Amino acid sequence: MSDNTLGAYNIADLREMARRRLPKGIFEFIDRGNEDDIALRNNRAALDRIKLKPRTLVDVSKRSQEITLFGKRQPMPIVIGPTGTTGQVWYRGEIALARAAAAAGIPFTLATGSTTALEQVIEQGGGGRMWFQLYIWPERSVAYEMVERVRKAGFEALVVTIDSPVSPNREFNLRNGFTLPFKFTPRSTTDVLMHPRWLFGVIARYLLTTGMPRYENYPGEIKSNMTAQPMGRSMPKNDSLTWDDLRAVRKIWPRTLIAKGILDARDAVLAADCGADGVVLSNHGGILVDSAIAPIDVLEETVDAVGKRIPVFIDSGYRRGSDIIKALALGAKAVFIGRPTLYGTAAAGQVGAARAITILRDEIDRVLALIGCPDVAALNREYVVPPRPH
Ligand SMILES: Cc1cc2nc3c(=O)[nH]c(=O)nc-3n(C[C@H](O)[C@H](O)[C@H](O)COP(=O)(O)O)c2cc1C
């Protein structure tokens, strides 16, 4: 029997494999947070502080982690969140990751800032549930055209990211000198040459086929403003957005609409009032505000405020099945996954992404048994001890 573990037994193993394979500049881009990485560490610390309270002598011989999301059953309670860099860690990484998600029966969210065109990802992504993440540009009409393109392509849900009015302060990206399209500085060239598997497996394959990776989903006029920006300083500036913009997108998008990037229950209520069908509590994986609260610390109050109206999703820092169980017990409908599957994709493409999903699925299953809860639907606040308010 072939071993499909890849020698990776947890997400940290996949992270280490990604670290060895990628140039340092790209690894830091996907792995680090911003400024002093405080939010990144705090996301983990907040999850680690929450403890599970196992019950015993419960028949857990039949276990289920199935959930129903917007009317459809899926075998496990995760969604692949948008990560704009997927195509830089693996050749056509978006397609590899979409296929792994489709095979696992979970939704895949394609980022606006991906380097494979959205139509191609729909066509070759394995036929699963496809969601699209949207940044609303200052030129609203351009964003609306994008919404129409996404609708025509057949995406099932639109995930509007509302937490990024300006680019974050990721100093390491500037120091490492990585840009899109790639510009070879002495520093980045040395970095690339020291990572031949990435050089030949990713960048050389692009050069031999479609040329240097570009933001394929950006409309022409915006793409031209975006080129050769240091990665991480390349987000379009959209600091004039208000709730009216979410309402405007709601008017033109007929399918599921999710607002991503909320850290205050009052904003979740506003999103629901604007017609969002779901919200994602997120600090963007610690990338934006280094002093930001961890999403798990506002989960209960957000579920209390809007949980009866719309599902509350969460992300940022989830690396273990037990983390996902904690979020579900505190009322999250499902957890968005960012880096774990990105590490997996960087390590071994579709197989690596599938490995990340399998690791999380097996960990969820084992913890369900060990805490005496046979079904994720039965998880509730009695299974966890949240940290005392300080
Ligand atoms: C490398 C990278 C790129 C990302 N790109 C986007 C993006 O384009 N749009 C977006 O809404 N969120 C983006 N995110 C945030 C993720 O969707 C998600 O909120 C975050 O990664 C969750 O935290 P985790 O990585 O700890 O799971 C990105 C995150 C990373 C790490």
Describe the structure.
With 390 residues, the chain is an alpha/beta fold. It has a single domain, classed as TIM Barrel (Alpha-Beta Barrel). The protein has 16 helices and 14 strands. The protein has an eight-stranded parallel beta sheet with strand order 4-13-12-11-10-7-6-5. A hairpin with a 2-residue loop joins β2 and β3. It is globular. The structure holds flavin mononucleotide.
The name CATH uses for the topology is TIM Barrel
Beta-strand level of the residues, as a percent range? 5-15%
Helix/strand-derived category reads alpha/beta
The radius of gyration over CA amounts to 20 Å
Strand order of the largest sheet: 4-13-12-11-10-7-6-5
Order of helices and strands: HHHEEEEHHEHEHEHEHHHEHEHEHEHEHE
Name the helicity range.
40-55%
Number of individual domains: 1
Bound molecules: flavin mononucleotide
Q: Main traits of this protein?
A:
single chain; alpha/beta; two-stranded antiparallel ribbon; globular; binds flavin mononucleotide
Topology:
Elements: H1 11-21, H2 24-31, H3 38-49, E1 51-52, E2 67-69, E3 72-74, E4 78-80, H4 86-89, H5 93-104, E5 108-110, H6 118-124, E6 130-134, H7 140-153, E7 157-161, H8 171-176, E8 179-180, H9 186-193, H10 196-208, H11 220-226, E9 229-230, H12 243-252, E10 256-262, H13 265-273, E11 278-281, H14 299-306, E12 312-314, H15 321-329, E13 334-337, H16 339-370, E14 384-385
Parallel strand pairs: 4-13, 5-6, 6-7, 7-10, 10-11, 11-12, 12-13
Antiparallel strand pairs: 1-14, 2-3, 8-9
The structure holds flavin mononucleotide (FMN).
